[in-house]
Amino acid sequence: MDFKTSNEETKTGIYLMQEGNEEPFNIRLHLAKDILTIQEQDVICVSGEPFYSSERTVTIRRQTIGGFGLSIKGGAEHKIPVVISKISKEQKAELSGLLFIGDGILQINGINVRSYRHEEVVQVLRNAGEEVTLTVSFLKKTPAFLKLPLCEDCTCIPSDQSSGTSSPLCDSGLHLNYHPNNTDTLSCSSWPTSPGLRWEKRWVDLRLIPLLHSRLSQYIPGSDVSRKNAFQVIAVDGVCSGVIQFPTAEECLDWLQAIASNISSLTKHNVKKINRNFPVNQQIIYMGWVDEKEQDSVQDRMYSPKFLALRGSSLFKFSAPPVTTWDWTRAEKSFTVYEIMCKILKDSDLLDKRKHCFSVQTESGEDMFFSVELECELLIWEKAFQMATFLEVERIQCKTYACIMESHLMGLTIDFGMGFVCFDAASKAVLWRYKFSQLKGSSDDGKSKIKFLFQNQDSKSIEAKVIKFDGCLMLHARK
């Protein structure tokens, strides 16, 4: 069940959520521009005494037709109290505001039946007489396999889904003294009311997840194993949504993309505000969560969340988003963008089951591997890294490196306007000069040696130049 309003940033739907080893339970998601609201169903007192009680006491009478008009499931053998799974249509109107599908029966005429088995509860009800007083409480986390029907307006309509044929639990219809030829009608006055009190089943807020700097995760924490049609949202303060489960892969992806889009919009807005405090050459170009593959990973902790930021000439890696100016000085690591190389990993380059991955090779030759949740996030990162590198190269205009060619100490200048210039380090005499347009290819040995292939403008022939650098210079030359 899902619908969109005219505002594309808003979505609402009813799905399942699981926390730890508990059974999944029904929740309603509401996505707004800056917050994800997770709601659970509960029964609350809406009139009468101004207090909230999780338990209700209701007295009902056995009817000529339909008995008590209730069906129940569960019991101690299933590790839950007996639960009201169906209310017949005839009795539903009379019980409005008294009993609800999903109510757990705690006491029958004062007898505590919380730990009774299913058949034991059935016997107590059969022997309860013409009038029975039930103490009930709505079980918000009734196991999902009860398949209680849900509607957007919170009314629960009995359906065949709540019958024993579709559930592993027993379903007892307590329609005692029923005879198909009996045409007596039910008397409204025969159903007692709860004096002065009225309850309603409503969706109430369970958790609010602020989306700014929140992160999404389809994977089991620390691993490369993706959950099937499920993900969780973790707020910047660590509050977790729980694992939200969807019936289809399409719905799961749709929600992932919608939440990711809202997070991205909030991040862009936040970056604009932060950049007001930074000079032009120190502007933030990118901020976002990634998962980094651990260098010395163990099987249950292969990945850990990191926060990357491209600002000015540097790539920063944090364990949490930087909030204050002081936070920027406490990054785990930082790198100069023109001295590192980013590579988007194709399917054949992937290290494990994680998709949407990229690597960053540093000036020391170290490789760092990261993954993001969605392909669109990967494209945003790639575009941002290219922009950061371009802006820094445009700012510095040229860079000169020491190198060795044919056993002689040389200098190699890479000029944004002129191209490549190689000169003798002692005499400063220019040995060769090529424009960027003349570079037709390059290769390296992965350590310190790089080979350039330039095309001679006059003869159109290819001329090879082999230069030896240290690791960091080679990486820049390759870029």
Automatic annotation (TrEMBL):
Molecular function in Gene Ontology: actin binding; structural molecule activity
Q: Which GO terms describe its cellular component?
A: cytoskeleton; nucleus; syntrophin complex
Could you tell me which residue ranges the PH domain spans? 283-390
Principal subcellular localisation of the protein: cytoplasm
Query: Which Pfam families has this protein been placed in?
Result: PDZ, Syntrophin_4th
- Where, per UniProt, does this protein localize? Cytoplasm, Cytoskeleton; Nucleus
Annotated PDZ domain ranges read: 57-140
Acetylation found in the keyword field? no
Write out the transmembrane intervals.
none
Q: Which family does it belong to?
A: Belongs to the syntrophin family.
- This chain belongs to the protein called Gamma-1-syntrophin
Q: Which organism is it from?
A: Haplochromis burtoni
